[in-house]
Every structure is written in C-alpha cells, then in structure tokens.
Design a protein that fits this description.
Blueprint lengths: L7 H12 L4 H8 L3 H14 L2 E8 L3 E8 L1 H35 L2 H17 L2
Antiparallel strand pairs: 1-2
Helix pairs in contact: 1-4, 2-3
Length: about 130
C-alpha cells in the first residue's frame, strides 16, 4: 500500500467524517474553513480514495450529498495519527530530559523562584 502524505487539514477532515457521514457544509463548520476550500480538500481526498460520496434522494428532484471515510482513508488516518503520536512522544521525552538537566544545574533557591514565577504567570493568564 502506497503511503500518501496528508496535510493537517486533510487529517482534520478525515477525523470529522470518521464518526459519521456529513455534508460539505457540516464538514466546513466542524473544521472552521470556507465551504469552497473544504470542497477542494474533499475532492482531493476522493481522488486519493480516502473519502466517498453518497447521494441521498428525497422527493423527486431533491438530493443531498453526504461524505464518509473509506477503509483506505481510515488506514491513512491511523498511519498519520501514529506518526504525529511518535513525534509528540519524542518532543515530550526531549522536553522532560531538558527540564531535568536545567533543574539539576540550578541552585535550589533559583528553582523555587522559577516555580513561583510560573505559578504566578499561569494565574495571571487564566
């Protein structure tokens, strides 16, 4: 299976249609993008085979288009999310290691001052 790169917006759209089928307007509201831009992304995802369109007719002349994720789209979404999870885990580990090194290098009084400053900034920015 070839692995295509997904943009962050494509990942967001796939997450939205993963749980239920939706119209383009509903997708646009969920990802907070313009309808025309979402239409381009959905068309691109359809060409990749990650999203499929279903037309539901009601009455004689009226119909609505609904979009849902395919099995290929679900696999691509899981692969993209696992890559993001790996990156986040790496950043978290690196940050904890760096914080440990900084804490070990600081005298205890400076560390207490840094903690108090952090708590004060967190309280003010709330």
């Amino acid at each position: 299976m070839r692995e295509a790169q997904l943009s962050l917006w494509e990942i967001r759209i796939l997450r939205v249609v993963r749980s239920e089928t939706r119209q383009e307007k509903s997708i646009a509201k969920c990802v907070r993008l313009n309808d025309l831009i979402v239409s381009e992304f959905v068309t691109e995802l359809m060409l990749k085979g990650y999203v499929e369109r279903r037309r539901r007719r009601w009455l004689l002349f009226f119909s609505r288009e609904y979009f849902s994720i395919t099995l290929e789209g679900l696999a691509a979404l899981e692969a993209a999310e696992s890559n993001v999870d790996r990156i986040m885990e790496f950043l978290k580990d690196s940050g904890q290691k760096l914080a440990g090194e900084v804490m070990a290098a600081m005298p205890p009084l400076a560390w207490d001052a840094a903690k108090a400053t952090y708590k004060m900034a967190k309280f003010i920015l709330k």
